[in-house]
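During data preparation, a discrete fold description was generated, as reproduced here:
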Amino acid sequence: MFHRTGCAILLVALTTACAGLTGERVVVDGAGPDELLKLRSGPSLGFGIIMGLPDGTELYQRDCVTEVGQRWCEVSLVETPQVTGYVSADYITPL
């Protein structure tokens, strides 16, 4: 009996953990036709740039934080979810 219960608990825990990896779908909006939104390694301008994201790039949004008056959201790319970082919340819109 413990074995079945333990597996059920593990399955629920894994499902819950995996569900939290995706987050809400958002899209890069407002960077401009000739600009790219900077995906950064941390939540401020002081962190390094991982890559630039053009308008229309779909992301999974996770938690957001406010640093020095600017709201930053942790995101991952829909096409390549292993690519994660932070973007300014001013440039993402829910799908």
Summary: The radius of gyration is 17 Å. Strands lie at 24-28, 37-40, 49-53, 58-67, 70-77, 84-88, 92-94. The domain at 23-94 is CATH 2.30.30.40 (SH3 type barrels.).
